[in-house]
Specification:
Strand order of the largest sheet: 2-1-3
Largest sheet: 3 strands, antiparallel
Function: Destroys radicals which are normally produced within the cells and which are toxic to biological systems.
EC number: 1.15.1.1
Distance between the termini: 27 Å
Number of strands: 3
Shape: globular
Radius of gyration: 16 Å
Catalytic activity: 2 superoxide + 2 H(+) = H2O2 + O2
Organism: Marinospirillum insulare
Pfam family, one: Sod_Fe_N
Helix content: 40-55%
Length: 194
């Protein structure tokens, strides 16, 4: 069965003014779609046929199948990390866990932003729950995903230039301000509880 581009969990203009519908036209409609299309070209006739994205990501060696499967998964996770009704400081159980680990949401956000701004090139920054159940902020490059390191992803920001160049050009810190205005803490709490 072919993989399909998941619908955005919000209207295409719902993230404005932080992320424009033009960015989503390209980021979701072209970049994310290309990963889906390419994965559907690569999988038939291989040992990955009939497998879920997660199964492919955990089993595929580095290369085109892994890269496209992971990028489909990462992007879907990223869309769910955003909400037009999100933003502000963390809420619920994740807020308590962040405060216990970093002392305050402001300190967590400062460390996350520092890691994200300094994450070189095409990359992702993640809040994860590690195998010991502790929170960490981790960076991945290219199609890297915390799943392959045994971490549970809680929140991510896409740092590939196509995520922000239309709206913010090369100003990654300004894009991060927009990201925090949209952070979906309900989604984070669902992942944290899972």
């Amino acid at each position: 069965m072919a993989f399909e581009l998941p619908a955005l969990p919000f209207a295409k203009d719902a993230l404005e003014p932080h992320i424009s519908s033009e960015t989503l036209d390209f980021h979701h409609g072209k970049h994310h779609q290309t990963y889906v299309t390419k994965l559907n070209e690569l999988v038939p006739g291989t040992e990955f046929e009939g497998k879920s994205l997660e199964e492919i990501i955990k089993a595929a060696p580095a290369g085109p199948v892994f890269n496209n499967a992971a990028q489909v998964w990462n992007h879907t996770f990223y869309w769910n990390s955003l909400s037009p009704n999100g933003g502000g400081a963390a809420t619920g159980a994740i807020a308590d866990a962040i405060n216990a680990k970093w002392g305050s949401f402001a300190e967590f956000q400062k460390e996350f932003d520092n890691k994200a701004v300094n994450n070189f090139g095409a990359s992702w920054t993640w809040l994860v729950k590690n195998a010991a159940g502790e929170l960490e902020i981790v960076n991945t490059s290219n199609a890297g995903t915390p799943m392959t390191e045994g971490h549970t992803a809680l929140l991510t920001v896409d740092l590939w230039e196509h995520a922000y160049y239309i709206d913010y050009r090369n100003a990654r810190p300004k894009y991060l301000e927009a990201f925090w205005a949209l952070a979906n803490w309900d989604f984070v709490n669902q992942n944290f509880a899972g």
